[in-house]
Structure formats: structure tokens, C-alpha cells
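Task 17 of the worksheet. Students: predict the tertiary structure of the chain below and write it out as C-alpha cells. Keep your answer in the requested format; marks are given for formatting as well as content.
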Amino acid sequence: MRVEGERVLLWLVLFAHLCSGLANDALSYDYTASLECLENPHKPQYGGGIILNPDLNHGLKGWYAFGGAEIEKRSSGGNDFIVAHNRKQTNDSIAQKLYLQKDKLYTFSAWIQVSSGITSVSAVFKTNSGHEYGGAVAAESGCWSMLKGGLTVDSSGPVQLYFESEDISVEIWVDSISLQPFTQEQWTSHQDQSIEKNRKRRVRLQATDGHGNPMAGAKMSIKQTKPHFPFGSAISKHILNNPAYQKWFTSRFTVTVFENELKWYSTEPSPGKEDYSVPDAMLQFAKQNGLAVRGHNILWDNGNDQPYWVPSLSNSDLRAAVRRRIESVVRRYSGQFIGWDVVNENLHFSFFEGKLGAEATGAAFQMTRRLDRSTTLFMNEYDTIEKSGKGSASPDKYLQKLKEIQYFLKGGRNLGIGLEGHFRTPNIPYMRSAIDKLAASNFPIWITELDVDPTQYFRDSKWSLKVYSSYRVNLEKQFSWPMYLEQVLREAHAHPAIKGIVMWAAWEPEGCFRMCLTDNNFKNTPTGDVVDKLLQEWIRAGRPFAGTADANGVFETSLFHGDYEVTITHPTLMNSSLIHSFKVVASSTDYISPEKGLLVDVSFRK
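Model answer:
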């Protein structure tokens, strides 16, 4: 019997995926990190992992003096800890011998205190071939701070874990040390679990006829029409008049950023002579193709990347020029970008603060917020997740600068963390732990300029795609570009704190910055193939998949957050098929009630 003049009910029920439902019972990963300086440290993560005597409850067992330090166990408030004092060298501290394996990924944590002031303390692993930094923390006196990091090693063998601080006048106090190894399979399972929990939802589709009878055996074809997770790449002005470039780009990505065209030296090459025609056209192209755009950048703190006429300005003239620049670009594009990089790379460089004073950065953020109150304002830095050493852009230093900006703005509304992600050889465990610590601030985090170049040959200058195209397959594979890119993209996409990913791979005829996804004929490079491979996993756009309803008219599956169309066919339908749209979104609840069901009219009318 055919259904005619009746309605079919399609109930859409979404369930939050429970990680306990996964078959893999591997040791779960602890994404937590503390930003507070506490009276007493937390217990060691993973019970200390492979660290002997991690909570110092057994005296100095397993620990010894490194370098010329003297060590002792102390107690305070019932808590035992180890102290390195009488330090003469930066690496005079405590140490423990360990054996690390090449095929393992290690996550590290410890709680650190110093005897006076505030100073950076790093965890270092001395191997047969050198030293690997496990992470660093800005340690304080009078309270305990959490150091969280991670590492891999190039070869299996013995290592020495020790701590170092450039301030040799302070004692280093250490407690609750943990080093937990994971296999690659376990690490991948963490990513899979996180994706199921944070990027996907369980979906139940139920079809019934107008009388409430289940449509058993109904065929359901589901297609994603728009992904919700922002994933994209930078573009250059060359996309404007290049249909092949446009087709290649828009068929893959949902978000973009202009490589150089919005920067001050591009829009005001001569004082007072502004030209926004190129970024205007690029923004129009993005809007026409449904691409969200990041605003990069308002100011760049590198003195070498100013308009040629800026460095010679007097301080008063510079202040006026900065004000005009912010007024001009932010007013023009207010509300049209999803984020502003306000003062780019202001941890590595200090052009504006050096000339205009310590409040220059805060003042730039304040003015931008006044002109565009709805758009998220980002810091944007490199080597925060790429390098595990004690650099100028470590997670602690990043958060300290962000805190200064927040204080200057009298609140943290609409602030964001931009992590450029210019990787050489990725340290994936450190990348994850660094994001963990940044995520504890509760600010939105984006990967903003992701690329890989393990060779470093082309870091500072563009290189010829014409030459590159001739050797691209061998070159990329020889230096592991595709493998490293896949590792970094998978880790970023899986981390629950990451809100979007933008790669720094704009195409230009004369070459790319560090990484190309396509050649001059818009054929994928090996790194481009990696991107397509992952898109096929993460996005089902244009690739429907089918299922059959059970006896209750129900079909269940797990879908990435996004917009979808479902096409239903059944012998009782007068029409050959029924098409309906629905959305899969993140939810803080485990269940969405059947009242959210969708009522679809499939009446056949002559």
C-alpha cells in the first residue's frame, strides 16, 4: 500500500557520544592543566608513570644531584618535596635516570617552586645524542606551578631527567613528577576518542508514516552539505583572476586569510596613500564563495615588516600613524572578519612597545575593540606549540601577555589565542600538552598559519614552484613533509580546545612561503594529497553514504558536526524519494528529546 496524501515523520535524535562506548580500553589521556599557583601541588598525573618515587614519599629514592647542586628532601604542611640548592650552574638540580624508547610518545608533568621571585624552570632530558626539552614553567616562590610538556626521542636508550634555571641564585623545588609513555596506537586512540566526543554526534534517524507506523527498510542516503569545523588555508591576490585556483580552493575549504594583502605595508605603501582595492576584492570573493575570513593583520611588531616610511617616524608621529592605521582598517572591515590579529608576533618582537611604551599593545587592542566590538581579537605567535624550549613565546609567556592585555581591556571578552604552527620536525606530545595549558585559560584557540618544513631550506625566502614541481615528489617524501603535516593536522583537529585550523600555503606563481599544496597546474603536491585524505575523513560533502532503517524505521550513525541532507526512499512513498535537511551540532547534554523531531510533508498532489 502506498502512502498518499499523508505525512511521513522523520525523527532526528542526537546523542552525545560517550567515550566509554569505544572498544579501545587503552589508558586515557589527561588533558587537564593548571594555571594557578597553589599552596600544595596536585598528585602526579598517571601516578607518576615510569618515574620512581614521583611524590617524594620515599625520601630521595631514585633521585640524585645533577651537576654541582646539593639536594635534600623537605616537608611542608604534610607534603614532601625535593630541593636543589647551592646551585652554581644553570643545570645544577635534581635528576633521575630513565630508559626511553624511540617508538613511544611521552607526556611529562611536574610541580615546581623556587625559593624567591619568579623565574623560568625547564625540564630537560639528556640523551646520548644531546638534550631534549620537555617543557618549561614560570615558577614562583610561596606556591606550586604546574609544568606540563612532552617529548619523543630519536633512538631508544638511557636518559637523564633534570631541571634547569638561568637564575642560579634560586633553589629549585620539585614535586609530583610524572612521565607517562604511550604507544602510537594509544595516542591515536586518544585522538579518535576526542573526535567522537568533541567533533561528532551520534544521530538516530527514524521514519514513520502519518499514522505513526515505522517505515521498516527505508533507504536513507546522508550527505554533508557544509562542515561546521573551520578548516582552510591562506590565499594570495592571484586567486582573483585564476578560475583553476578558485575551483581548487573553494572545493576544499571553508575559511581563509589573506597572506600579505591586508598588511600595513600593502594597504599604505606610501604615507597617506591608502589602497584597499585588493583586499576588498579578496573579501568579496570569499563572501561569494561562503568562506569565512580572518583579519591578518592590523599591526606587525617586527621592525623589518613595517611600511618603508614607518621606522623613521618620530615617536609622536608614529603614535599618530598607528592610530590612523587602526581606525582605517578596522572601520573598513568591522564585523566582516571572524577574528583580528591585532599586534602580530608581539612576544618575539617589540617594535611598537619599544618606541611607544609598554602600553602600546594594550592600547591597540583597546582601540580595535572600540571600533569592532563583535569580532574576536587575537594574539598571534609562533614557537608556542612548535618548540619545547624556554623561548620568548612559551605557553606561560603567551598567557602572561594575554593577561596583561585582558587587564588593560578590563575584561577578557572576545579575546583569542592564535597559534601560527610553523613546524619543523614536530614534537607531537609537546604540542598536545602546550595546547592543554593554553586551553586552561578558556580562551578560544585557533591554529592560524600551519605549515611544515623540516629542511628549513626555504624558511626565509620564497622558492620557485617551477623548479619545485620537477622534484616535488622526491623532495617532499625525502624530508617527510607529508608525514609531518598529517601528524600535526590530526593532532590539532582532535584536540578539544582547537576551534579552527588555517594553513599557511597560499599559492603564487613564483612560489610558496614554506609549504605548497598544489603545483602551478593545480595538481596536488604530496602535502596536498594529505589534506585531501583528511578532508575525506572529516567531511562527507558530495559523498553520500547510505543506510537502511531497521524494523522500527530507525537508522543510527555517527556524524561530524555540520549541515546535512538525507534522502529517504521507501516502496510506500508516492514520490520516488524524500529529501530533508538537518544540522548536527555540539551539545552540552547527552540527549536531545524526541520533541526535536522533524516533521516532513511528502504528500503526493496532482
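Marker's comment: The CA atoms of residues 26 and 186 lie 6 Å apart. DSSP finds twelve helices and 29 strands in the chain.
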